[in-house]
From TrEMBL:
Domain Cell morphogenesis protein N-terminal per the UniProt entry, residue ranges: 20-569
Cross-referenced SUPFAM superfamilies: ARM repeat
Superkingdom assignment: Eukaryota
GO biological process, one term: cell morphogenesis
A Gene Ontology cellular-component term: cell cortex
PANTHER family: FURRY-RELATED, PROTEIN FURRY
Descriptive protein name: MOR2-PAG1_N domain-containing protein
Organism: Heligmosomoides polygyrus (Parasitic roundworm)
InterPro entries given in the database record: ARM-type_fold, Cell_morpho_N, Furry/Tao3/Mor2
């Protein structure tokens, strides 16, 4: 294929397109080679000829090509050259000597070249070797690798061209960094000692010159990292002092190189060489930490450096000097010893992350951390001549992506308790850190959580404006805090306060923060069975108090999170039940222990979820209705798994059983034969009925079909709320639904009430279809949508209206005002809802009656008045008598009788 494409290029219909195809073929060819060449070591003798061909092709493909000739394909050509360099790197595992020999042969030929492109050719050749690996597990292999390094070192000393010299230095760093990371103790190999001695002095001189500093600094670091212990301790102090001074360099690249060098040198000093004397070590560490985290400073040095580097530095220190790492560094970063609390976002972020990493390593009994194998800023040394300086980046393979297979660290998410902290030796440091964490969370809640909730943000501002500037580092700190929970818990903050903060964060403007808070709450649901009640109630309270129907996208997201929480609860309950069954099967005695006290409240919490789901069934959009139905199904399964004796009948069970009756009696908008062909389960009927549109043109009072003007789904909800169904069998869910239904009705009523000046120009609000400008967070709810919601809320509010004498008792709807109360209706509503905003039933009933009575007088609003009639027809029996008294006091009954006599 390559030959055919090459021929087509020479005949050339469209050379650029053909060149692009050829590059694509070569790229795919390299991807395949990178995957299969590691198997060559098992077939060395049989593959010699093919390996020789591949090496020849690879060195040919990496040769310099004039960008002017390649045109728009220049970038693709560089990518292909890098993938061929990866092929050479893979082959270096089995054919290192052959690659070394071939490289030196090409290098010798290029030295004789005097053309203008010789520097470019040399740099391209050097870049081809950046993935070459030196084996250190066998002395012979190691010495062969050192011989290659020595040849490169000789070339570095003799070459005069600045760019080529920098490229050689960069290549040496690329190869030496993995070697330094593999040396667990000092390498007592004469060839390596000689190599370090040969290059250290000249490289130190280069590092002192401004034009060579960026290239020489990393190389000097690598030479120290592979040197013997005595050589390191003798030479690293002057270099350390120079490095600390360069941390404040105005050139951000130099300060970044200094930081990269520092934390590699510190790894060698602390982990490989085990420090030196106590006083000397403390002096060095105080100097290092004082430069990175200046006392009395709000920031870190250098600014804008990746925080993970600082975290690793503290982690390295903690390997040998745990007390110093906490008392002198982490305590200062977290402001543990300061009475006046202020935020220092970057410093606190580093402190929390360092605490988590150290505790995790101690608890998992990890090996000491490995030395970082890549140094970002040295990318400048290996770029093509005359190219602009590259930004700091990892020099790991970036073309194919096939060699970047990193073993991801798994961190513990279970809470770090005081007992665990004591067992790993952190007890004296842990409590001050938890107290500092408490203060940090409270300040963040005040400064970047509450003001940036999607229900509180200022209109007209984009998220970039809200989340930029000084807010950004605070948000980064907040993300770290949320991610640390529940592993790290604040002290003395109560768990209810913590849950409230996290719940508010689930509606934050920042999407990443919202997701993290939701995940944290779900983790807590699994880890803390005794907290499940409060977590669910907090989310329901948020939906009840702050997320109105004018936030449709936010409302949907919060509902999805609540659904995920319920699913997480079900999964945790299944696992706990399985463990209990295994424990019972292994025990000799069949002793059944009483469940914990918090389990007794589970029924009330689950009924609170059902109550919210009943409210969401009024939604005009299908998505929240589907989520509500799914939540009801999950609640039913949880009740079954937990075998809760104090629970009412699951709402979804009642709805499913009532569906055939409701379809026959209440849905007259569709012919009976068609209705009987439906799947008569609640979920299916909900989708079908809610999609039916009303047509007021079909209404004819002479034919007795006034019901056609009513919303079909509102009629269905009225049927489900009959005496025999929800009210008598699910009293707790109904009682939980009432406050939310009433609040939502009152919120929507403002956009329906014709006494509102904004609505006075509408002759018929029910027939109005223009959009009303009530948008929040870029979303809008139309006037028609408000009316549709209002109709359904009114029906269920009337149906679920509680007794004016007791907020916790409901009587089944009946047209007989003297019907007796049933015992199951007298059950206590969720005790956990005492934390939620409860509304006096007497006050709310009075407001409801006031609104409905006023609407009955709207002579010119017949359609709205008829909807009120539908709602009153659904009124609960215990409230119906009170409503009649209210109508009588207002004179509405008297007026109606007078009109009847008149006509």
């Amino acid at each position: 294929m390559e030959l055919r494409i090459s021929e087509s290029i020479t005949t050339g219909s469209d050379s650029r397109l053909q060149t692009k195809k050829l590059l694509a073929v070569n790229y795919l060819f390299c991807i395949v080679l990178i995957e299969i060449l590691p198997q060559v070591e098992f077939h060395l003798s049989a593959c010699e000829q093919q390996v020789r061909y591949l090496l020849d092709s690879s060195f040919q493909q990496v040769q310099y090509k004039d960008p002017a000739t390649l045109g728009p394909n220049n970038t693709n050509s560089l990518v292909v050259a890098e993938t061929y360099a990866e092929v050479i790197g893979v082959l270096s595992e089995t054919h290192f000597t052959q690659i070394h020999k071939q490289f030196m042969g090409i290098l010798t030929e290029l030295k004789k070249d005097s053309s203008a492109t010789v520097a470019h050719n040399l740099i391209s050749l050097l870049m081809a070797m950046k993935f070459v690996k030196i084996k250190t597990n066998q002395v012979d292999d190691f010495e062969m690798g050192i011989k290659f390094l020595d040849d490169l070192g000789s070339f570095l000393l003799e070459v005069k061209d600045k760019d080529v010299k920098h490229a050689v230095a960069g290549l040496l760093v690329e190869i030496l960094l993995p070697v330094a990371a593999q040396i667990k103790r000092e390498a007592n190999i004469p060839a390596l000692i000689a190599f370090v001695g040969k290059l250290y002095g000249p490289t130190s001189e280069l590092a002192s010159k401004k034009q060579h500093k960026l290239a020489a600094y990393p190389l000097l670091t690598c030479l120290l990292c592979v040197s013997q212990r005595q050589f390191f301790l003798s030479n690293w102090v002057p270099f350390l002092n120079n490095t600390l001074a360069n941390l404040k360099n105005r050139d951000s690249r130099i300060s970044r190189v200094a930081l990269e060098s520092l934390y590699r040198l510190l790894w060698v000093y602390m982990i490989r060489n085990n420090c030196d004397g106590n006083s000397a070590t403390r002096t060095r560490l105080e100097s290092i930490c004082g430069s990175l985290f200046p006392k009395g400073n709000r920031g870190i040095v250098p600014r804008d450096a990746p925080l993970n580097i600082f975290v690793k530095i503290i982690h390295f220190i903690a390997q040998q000097k745990l007390d110093f790492a906490f008392k002198d560094v982490i305590f200062d970063l977290l402001a543990c010893n300061r009475s006046q609390r202020s935020l220092y976002p970057e410093r606190m972020n580093i402190g929390i992350r360092a605490l988590m990493v150290i505790a995790d390593g101690l608890q998992q009994k990890d090996e000491p951390p490995a030395m970082p194998k890549s140094m970002g800023i040295i990318a400048d040394g290996l770029q093509q001549k005359d190219e602009p300086p590259a930004m700091p980046k990892s020099m790991g393979p970036s073309a194919s992506g096939t060699m970047q297979r990193l073993k991801k660290k798994t961190y513990i998410t279970r809470p770090l308790t005081v007992d665990i902290a004591r067992s790993i030796g952190l007890d004296q440091y842990y409590i001050p850190c938890r107290k500092a964490f408490d203060s940090i969370l409270r300040i963040l809640d005040t400064q970047v959580c509450r003001p940036l909730m999607m229900t509180a943000v200022q209109r007209g501002k984009e998220p970039e404006e809200l989340l930029g500037g000084e807010v950004k580092p605070k948000l980064d700190l907040f993300r770290t805090c949320v991610a640390a929970i529940p592993r790290l818990l604040p002290e003395p903050m109560t768990y209810t306060e913590l849950i409230d903060i996290l719940t508010r964060t689930t509606v934050h403007v920042d999407e990443e923060l919202r997701t993290m808070a939701g995940n944290t709450l779900q983790n807590m649901l699994g880890e803390f069975p005794e907290w499940r009640e409060q977590i669910i109630i907090a989310e329901i309270t948020l939906l009840h108090n702050q997320l109105t129907d004018f936030y449709p996208a936010v409302l949907d997201e919060a509902l999805r999170l609540l659904h995920q929480m319920v699913v997480t609860w079900k999964s945790a309950a299944l696992q706990e039940k399985k463990k209990e069954q295994e424990k019972d099967s292994n025990s000799f005695e069949n002793s059944h222990t009483a469940p914990p006290l918090y389990v007794l409240n589970y029924a009330s919490v689950l009924h609170a979820v059902e109550g919210l789901a009943l409210c969401m069934l009024c939604q005009i959009r299908p998505q929240p209705r589907k989520i509500a139905v799914s939540m009801l199904k999950e609640v039913k399964q949880i009740i079954s798994i937990l075998a809760l004796d104090n629970a009412d009948v699951p709402v979804i069970t009642v709805l499913d059983e009532a569906t055939p009756y409701v379809v026959r009696k209440y849905i007259e908008h569709i012919p009976l034969y068609e209705r009987m062909s439906w799947n008569l389960d609640f979920a299916s009927v909900c989708d079908k009925v809610a999609a039916i549109d009303t047509d007021v043109c079909l209404v004819n009072s002479d034919k007795g079909n006034e019901y056609l003007q009513w919303d079909p789904w509102a009629c269905a909800l009225s049927g489900y709320a009959e005496r025999r169904h929800l009210i008598s069998r699910c009293p707790s869910a109904v009682a939980n639904a009432w406050p939310t239904l009433f609040n939502k009705l009152m919120a929507v009523n403002a956009y329906v009430d014709p006494s509102n000046p904004q609505n006075e120009n509408r002759a018929s609000l029910l027939r109005g279809s223009k959009s009303k400008g009530s948008s929040v967070c870029g979303e809008a709810l139309s006037q028609e949508g408000c009316l549709s919601l209002w109709q359904k809320y009114l029906v269920l509010c009337c149906a679920f209206a509680p007794s004016p004498h007791s907020s916790n008792s409901l009587i089944s709807r009946s047209f007989s005002p003297t019907s007796s109360m049933e015992t199951d209706v007298m059950r206590s509503v969720s005790s956990s809802l005492r934390t939620a905003s409860r509304i006096s039933s007497t006050a709310t009933l009075s407001q409801l009656f006031t609104k409905t009575a006023a609407m009955l007088r709207w002579e010119n609003m017949i359609d709205i008045r008829d909807s009120v009639v539908l709602g009153i027809g659904s009124l609960n029996a215990v409230a119906f008598e009170t409503f009649l008294e209210d109508l009588n006091q207002r004179g509405i009954l008297r007026d109606a009788m007078e009109k009847k006599v008149r006509f």
